[in-house]
Amino acid sequence: KKRLQKRQWRMKKRLQKRRWKMKKRLQKRRWKMKKRQQKRRWRVKKRLQKRQWRMKKRLQKRRWRWKMKKRQQKRRWRHRHDDGKVKKRLQKRRWKRKKR
Fold first, then answer.
1. What's the gap between Cα 19 and its chain centre?
2. What is the predicted pLDDT for the residue at 68?
3. Residue-wise pLDDT tens digits, 19-68
4. Helix axes 2-80, 85-99, angle to 10 degrees
5. What sections of the chain are H helices per DSSP?
6. Cβ(53)–Cβ(45) under 8 Å?
7. What is the DSSP track for 36-50?
8. What pLDDT was estimated at residue 12?
9. Are 86 and 78 in contact (CB under 8 A)?
10. pLDDT tens-place string over residues 55-99
11. 86 Cβ contact partners less than 8 Å away, ≥ 6 residues apart
């Protein structure tokens, strides 16, 4: 009887140990999966941010170019339609600067 009890006890312990190990293995696997997912999410997020940043920069450049073009056009138009007013004004300014 005693021997039988001992054997049963050993079996029980073995089973507990196995279950415990399985549990730990599962926890580890889950943890690794979670970490992998986090890394993936982070990478996706960064990629998106980079893309948005590039788009933003592209837009800024386009706007800047457009602004400069418009400014140039305006200047050209003024010079063409002023009968020398702008030229005179510039000459006056230069003359004043020289005088100072």
1. 44
2. 97
3. 999 999 999 999 999 999 999 999 999 999 999 999 999 999 999 999 99
4. 100
5. 2-80, 85-99
6. no
7. HHHHHHHHHHHHHHH
8. 95
9. yes
10. 999 999 999 999 999 999 998 988 888 777 888 888 899 998 888
11. 78, 79
Q: Please report the pLDDT score of residue 80 as a whole number.
A: 83
Question: 86: how many CB neighbours lie within 10 A of its CB?
Answer: 14
Cα 83 from Cα 1, distance rounded (Å): 124
For residue 98, what are its two tokens?
Answer: 């020289």
Other CB atoms within 10 A of residue 36 CB:
10
What is d(CA 86, CA 79) in angstroms, rounded to the nearest whole number?
7
Residue 1 is given by DSSP the state -
CB neighbourhood size of 53 (10 A): 10
Structure tokens at 8: 């049963």
CB 86 within 8 A of CB 79: yes
Task: Provide the pLDDT for residue 18.
Answer: 97
